[in-house]
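pls design
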C-alpha cells in the first residue's frame, strides 16, 4: 500500500541505532504501513481490537509490578514478572514522553507458554496498532498474545 510520507520518518526512527540499538523492524521487509495493516487485520479477524489487548497488558503489568521482580499470580493461571531494567525509551512515532524499559514476562501456567513486552509495546499497540516488525527482539505477536493471555472479545 502507498505510504504516508510521515510514516517514512517514523520508519527511519525505527532503524537500528536510532532510538534503540536493535530497532523496531527486525528483518521485516514490508513497509511500515503494511505491517500495521496486516497486524490490524489479524486482530480484527478475531473480533478484537488494539485497545482490548493493550488494556489487558496494562492491567497485568500493574498487578505484576507489585511483585517487585518476583512472580505474581493473576487470575489463577497467569504468572507475571516485571523486571525493571532501568532507563527509558522514546516512542518512534514521535510522541513526547518517555517509557520505562521494564520487561514484563507472563507465563500461562495451563499451557507453559510465555510472552514478554515493555511499557513502550503497550503504548505503541494502544496508540498506533504497532506490534513491531517480524524478527524484532521486542515484537509482540498479536495472535500469541491473545492465545497466551486467553483474551476473550
Ligand atoms: Zn507514540
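designed seq:
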Amino acid at each position: 500500500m502507498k505510504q504516508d510520507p510521515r510514516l517514512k520518518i517514523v520508519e527511519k526512527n525505527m532503524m537500528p541505532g536510532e532510538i534503540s540499538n536493535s530497532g523496531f523492524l527486525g528483518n521485516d521487509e514490508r513497509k511500515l504501513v503494511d505491517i500495521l495493516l496486516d497486524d490490524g487485520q489479524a486482530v480484527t479477524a478475531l473480533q478484537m481490537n488494539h485497545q482490548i489487548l493493550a488494556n489487558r497488558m496494562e492491567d497485568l503489568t500493574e498487578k505484576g509490578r507489585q511483585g517487585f521482580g518476583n512472580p505474581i499470580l493473576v487470575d489463577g493461571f497467569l504468572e507475571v514478572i516485571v523486571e525493571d531494567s532501568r532507563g527509558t525509551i522514546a516512542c518512534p512515532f514521535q510522541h513526547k514522553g518517555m517509557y520505562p524499559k521494564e520487561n514484563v514476562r507472563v507465563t500461562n501456567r495451563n499451557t507453559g507458554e510465555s510472552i514478554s513486552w515493555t511499557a513502550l509495546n503497550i503504548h505503541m499497540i494502544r496508540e498506533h496498532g504497532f506490534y513491531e516488525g517480524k524478527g524484532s527482539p521486542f515484537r509482540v505477536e498479536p495472535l500469541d498474545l491473545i492465545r497466551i493471555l486467553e483474551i476473550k472479545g
